[in-house]
Amino acid sequence: MEPGDRLGLLAPDAVREHADGLAALLVDAVDGGASVGYPAPLDPAEAAAWWAGTAGTRDVWAAFGPDGAVTGAVTLLRTATANGRHRGEIARLLVHRSARGRGLGRRLLAAAEAHAAATGLTLLVLDTQTDSPAERLYRGAGWTAAGTIPEYAADPEGTLRATTLYYKLLA
């Protein structure tokens, strides 16, 4: 990490406060071809509205560069069903293209995993586009591929792509 990069769990008010920076991160991901739920081009206002809407519904970690710009983020969504309170989902692990290659994705993922374990979760799940660079990160962090679903989601250009489901036992 470069000096000055910092990472933290954001309170709901802080998520709303940083919605524009988080939106720029999401737009960068879509522009870079990441399949994160949006077609390209993604309107920054739509991206900011998504982040503002997550405040209080999921845990959000953000990384900030030396200049205060958002350089990465990850969210943890808890399962609300009575029989699933032991599990959570990692979603939208994003690292700005200008901040890649410094271990930021691994740090964000580790922070979310540690928090999940400390708050009683024992199982995490996630999905990612098959053959994406993210798969190397997840496998290297001890995640297990559970299976692949063909034509699961469209990439930013609209092409249907396979998705691989992953899980990690925390206890």
Task: Please characterize this protein's 3D structure.
Strand 2 and strand 3 (70-78) form a beta hairpin. A seven-stranded mixed β-sheet has the order 1-2-3-4-5-7-6. By secondary structure, it is of the alpha+beta class. The radius of gyration is 15 Å and the shape is globular. It has a domain at 6-124: Gcn5-related N-acetyltransferase (GNAT) (Aminopeptidase, 3-Layer(aba) Sandwich). Helices cover 30% and strands 33% of the residues.
Which characteristics define this entry?
alpha+beta, Aminopeptidase, 5 helices, 33% strand
Topology (SSEs and partners):
Blueprint: E1 6-10, H1 12-17, H2 19-31, H3 44-54, E2 59-64, E3 70-78, E4 87-95, H4 104-118, E5 123-129, H5 134-140, E6 144-154, E7 160-169
Parallel strand pairs: 4-5
Antiparallel strand pairs: 1-2, 2-3, 3-4, 5-7, 6-7
Helix pairs in contact: 2-3
